[in-house]
Amino acid sequence: xxxxxxxxxxxxxxxxxxxxxxxxxxxxxxxxxxxxxxxxxxxxxxxxxxxxxxxxxxxxxxxxxxxxxxxxxxxxxxxxxxxxxxxxxxxxxxxxxxxxxxxxxxxxxxxxxxxxxxxxxxxxxxxxxxxxxxxxxxxxxxxxxxxxxxxxxxxxxxxxxxxxxxxxxxxxxxxxxxxxxxxxxxxxxxxxxxxxxxxxxxxxxxxxxxxxxxxxxxxxxxxxxxxxxxxxxxxxxxxxxxxxxxxxxxxxxxxxxxxxxxxxxxxxxxxxxxxxxxxxxxxxxxxxxxxxxxxxxxxxxxxxxxxxxxxxxxxxxxxxxxxxxxxxxxxxxxxxxxxxxxxxxxxxxxxxxxxxxxxxxxxxxxxxxxxxxxxxxxxxxx
Length: 382
Prior knowledge:
Blueprint: H1 27-38, E1 43-46, H2 53-66, E2 70-75, H3 82-96, H4 99-109, E3 115-118, E4 125-128, H5 133-140, H6 142-150, E5 154-159, H7 162-167, H8 169-179, E6 186-190, H9 195-203, E7 214-217, H10 223-236, H11 244-252, H12 256-268, H13 278-302, H14 305-316, H15 324-330, H16 337-347, E8 351-353, E9 361-363, H17 366-373
Parallel strand pairs: 1-6, 1-7, 2-5, 5-6
Antiparallel strand pairs: 3-4, 8-9
């Protein structure tokens, strides 16, 4: 594929945006988080995967930093034990504090129940956190200790919090027991990439964090916001998305990551000082689907036959799940088990409720939806 590149693409789609990067849309959500942090109220971001939750978390922490809070971002992805959780928290403070607060932390961390073991080759010693809950509790108290010593409040983001939930209910109970004592000391924002687990943790009375954080919903991005965001970045690089912009917006369907993926490939295939045409759009779509294909195929491979059938019907948007067409064309059963299967797909983040479709559901990923609706293959764009 021929690519015209004189400067790096302004569209980041593989990783979260780092401040001071400007988010596409999300002005209202960012303002709400900023206000809630200022009032030291806890929040949780809820939305499908790849909807920009981490980017919004980091933008909210950057805003809180300007408001005088001490921002701390903790990523819990892959934690397996209380010791893992404690280590992630300690590492976040060590890497993100600076100046006077970094010196304060160096003094405090030396008192947090260290254990000493021989370093490699027997040279020196190595300090590591304990592997049980008291070590975690010590690190959870850091916002209170910081406020007592320096009079500063913290804004703390706990990302991929569903992996803490997976460790066990006892651990989440321990964390809540400390966090509920923080009052005006710290504001917490929770986020996670498993919608079902995150919803249960904060909405089910049986779980420790029930009603402990106000939900902040992340809907699909508005087409006008996306058009402005994409168009202005093309313009800054002396490019014009032209007629391809409308095709891009229709294909992305408000999905943040997919919009940036498509915009990146359109940018890469548009010459400087030129306007994109349908030819550039075809090349951009081909590049984007090539990038998305492994993820789409992995999703398909992870589903059982019942899930595959229902996802195929939902992708069309026009066929009722319990109708004759769904049964005859896709083999969808007419039993009540369909609702259980759809609920499982919703909890895993593959579909969301949508009253505008005949199925009352919509596939979250618009590229996956295209692939499914086209008979499990990529369409050729006109």
